[in-house]
Amino acid sequence: MQRPARQLTFAEGVLQRARAAASDARADAGDARAMTAFLDDAEAGGVTLTAEVLQCKRVPRGSGVSYGHTHVTERETTLALVDIGYGHGLPRKAGNRAGALVSVHGVLVPIVGRVAMDACVIDVGDLDVSPGDRVTVFGDPATGCLSLARWAKAVGEHPLSIVAALRTAHTADAALGIAPFVAANRARVSAAALRANVSLMRDRVAPAELIAVVKDDAYGHGLDGVVGTFRDAGVEFFGALDVSTAHRVRELAPNARVLAWVLDDVDALPRAIAEGIELGVTSELALRRVVAAAREAGRSARVHLKTDTGLHRAGVRREGWASFVADAVANPDAVSVVGLWTHIAEASDTADTAAIEQFLAAVAEAHAQGVTEPTLHLAASAAAFTRADARQDAVRIGAFLYGIAPGDGVGPAELGLRPAMSLESAINARWGRDGRAFASVQLGGVHGMLRDCVGATLAVRGTRYPIVCVEPLRTIIEVGAGGGGDSDLDSDGNVVVGDIAVFFGDGARGEATLQELADAAGTIGEEIVTRLDRVLTRVWAELPGRALG
Length: 549
Prior knowledge:
alpha/beta; 8-stranded parallel beta sheet; 16 helices
């Protein structure tokens, strides 16, 4: 039996104490005794998170890593791609974060570059690390790793919030059940906005085919509703990331092409191949696994071979590309190459142009080895929107279909996108202290909110109020001047218990957009929506009677 790609284990009683610490939705502090006990567990190493190394690469000094090349290697070193990202709950800010170290073979090493939705990169230097090795994010300090308490402090989040957000799989049912259900906490999803974004992007990238990416429960929006909406809007090609998601997409859109490229569930590959799910093959190890699975399934696998053109994550580097393609075409009974792809780093126009040229050289090499008429794709949302030369035969569009803009001052309105999700709760308490008035909602860190959202706003009755604290079970806003007693209200009475408070949306209720919230928190919209716990009810507009919780 294959070992899971990610494992989260608890010492006896620890998970129960974590749930108890968050269990009383009527008390903003939860069960105080259970919280104290859980924090002791977190300090002592009672929670362990590990993930598998997918790929290792020896790279020269000066190599940029991950999106935007926010880390550049200072020496020749080995980079290891690890099978965990912010879509699994690993905070994106752990990348390039001093102190947020992980352990491999008992040695602490840094996470470098930006953490991606499905993976992160660690710099292992000259350590002997191979695909299949385990990386400990946190665990028992006696084994050479950081405890959960110390690791959480390094990334600036509460230990309970860290654990509550973790998912070892990509599916909606993978959460641990720590976050309490609060009826007022709702994520509203607009099918009309999704359809409008599909239309906009399809027209923008034509004649390239649009691959609609629905990974991580369709960016937290709800897989079933999104796939149905996209299918009805004419989408015929889906990017599913993992095999489990691909199976569900196949059920919902039986006539569509479906591509999965995180192949960490080896036991699931024969079924995927039998169903005609296309597989993105990103390494020599993945190719060997696919060949074996195809022979077990008795059917040739339809594969897309990936080359690394400078992102230094998944994909085969230039020096190994020719032999990689040769190995694929040498197994015609098991492999049919139907696609070639890469992922550009979006570090700069110059770097991206070089990456496109390198990709086209890799395509020429594949053609020379007998690969004919493959689907070529290298661009995701931002590059597909801005660069015609990056579109090739198809483009993988994820964030933009949900109205999530790239940030850095560029919002959805500037791109013509419509935000598809809004997040709301309700004021559950209000009080005054030291001449200031405060109110709270029961949506906090265990539901996916980051402490970095302090300084962003919540909108109540069309007015934005600053977030002053994000705790595990609540978010607190300052609502104006108050008196000296704990029971005093804001002086103008504009915020009362029961009022709807909106974290983000399309602005119709005076609220910030998701992009504004993400910018204030120093992250991207994709992390905000994928961190949201699945216990939050998803309410669909334009699909009468549909609520996905």
